[in-house]
UniProtKB/TrEMBL annotation:
Organism this protein belongs to: Pogonophryne albipinna
Membrane topology: Single-pass membrane protein
Family: Belongs to the RMDN family.
Protein name: Regulator of microtubule dynamics protein 2
GO cellular component: membrane; mitochondrion; mitotic spindle pole; spindle microtubule
Pfam family, one: RMD1-3
Keywords: Coiled coil, Membrane, Transmembrane, Transmembrane helix
Protein's cellular compartments: Membrane
Chief subcellular location: membrane
PANTHER family xref list: REGULATOR OF MICROTUBULE DYNAMICS PROTEIN (PTHR16056), REGULATOR OF MICROTUBULE DYNAMICS PROTEIN 2 (PTHR16056:SF15)
Amino acid sequence: FGQNSLFLWRLIRAYCDVHDVSSTLEEKKTHAETGKRVGEEAVSLNPTCAESHQCLDVEQSLPNPSPGQYSMSILITLPFRYAIICGIMAEYDTVQNKIKNGYIFKDHLDKAIELKPQDPLSYYLLGRWCYAVAQLSWIERKVAAMLFGDPPSATVEDALNNFLKVENIQPGYSKVNYVFLTKCYKDLGQREKARKMCEAACSMNAVSKEDEDFQKELDVLRPALGV
């Protein structure tokens, strides 16, 4: 199965899922490291995925695509899945590797968006990347500048635009997207818009572990915004 793109995509996704449900830090780190290695192998099989533009049309035009056709179209998600696993891995690395993985995460997200520009999840993750970069500490920026010349650059406004893009593509996409819209508007001093986004987040049920994890942040934001 090592040369099968469909299998590798599913394997990366499985490592992401197992990471999320693991109970110890060591288990999470192990699954993240293994998933990243699988991601590197998957991307090396087809680093450009030029055929994916055509495969999108094949997948959308066939209600029941054959396994071969589906495995070709799934190449679109390999940069996306690799970006996710790099983002997860950054949680457990040194500052140096965290920044390195951040660059890789951004590069593969850009590729995923180029291949599938109407996928809301890619813009959500790009919003998360922008928001995290906007919060980088002084020392992290200095390390990035020393290692790579130019540190990663993004603002809260950049993050906001990506989260709004998610909402534009698919209104009510997720509870967590509303949480980040709330945080962005709050950081930018737009209290009324922040309050509306907070209300929207509160109105949605938690349907994923990520939703549950961010409920704690939402509980802090609510009284601060009078919700």
